[in-house]
Amino acid sequence: MKNASLLDPIEAFVSAQLSACGDELIYHNLNHTLSVVQNASRLADHYRLTDPDRFVVIAASWFHDLGYVNGDPAGHEQRGALIFREFANRLVIEGDLIERVTNCILATTLPQKPTDLLESIVCDADLYHFGTIEFAEKDLLMLEETSRRLKTDIPAGSWLSGSAKLLRSHQFCTPYCQDRLAAQKHENLRQLEARIQAAFEADQ
């Protein structure tokens, strides 16, 4: 089988796994994964990746958050990599592709520390929304998912402060994202800081 054709069973498997979670995962669901795959595909096109390299980043994007289906956020990258390895053993995957996909999945662990272009692409595909106008909406979904998992209401000011801290510490890894997303990411941070200030003043 050519690498591209292996993506069809991967898509079917991951989609079924995430769909079975129902409403449990408000953010780390199939919609998020599809978005990451789309972002990775955009970056793969820009960098004109070879067929094997493109398979690596797309496969890793499909599996990068699959560890959420069987555990808490901590360690979900390792679980996702393990699920991929177990699934990949059913397919005929040549050479070191399994290892390279696994490395890309693990590279998305925060703080991200990619070691090559492919890992950088998957990292940026995962957090692409940090530099888009969708950031606020997706951050709200993260808050709702976290609140449900912890079974508690998280104070808005506390959550916003954590989100702002994450944006300040984050750096896009690829020149493509650095060039195209930096301005909106800066604006997203500005808006967060304004909301934090408003929440602080409301508590006074």
TrEMBL record:
Q: Which Pfam families match?
A: HD
**Which first-to-last residue range defines the signal peptide?**
none
Q: Which domain of life is it from?
A: Bacteria
Domain HD: residue ranges: 29-131
Instruction: List the protein's name.
Output: HD domain-containing protein
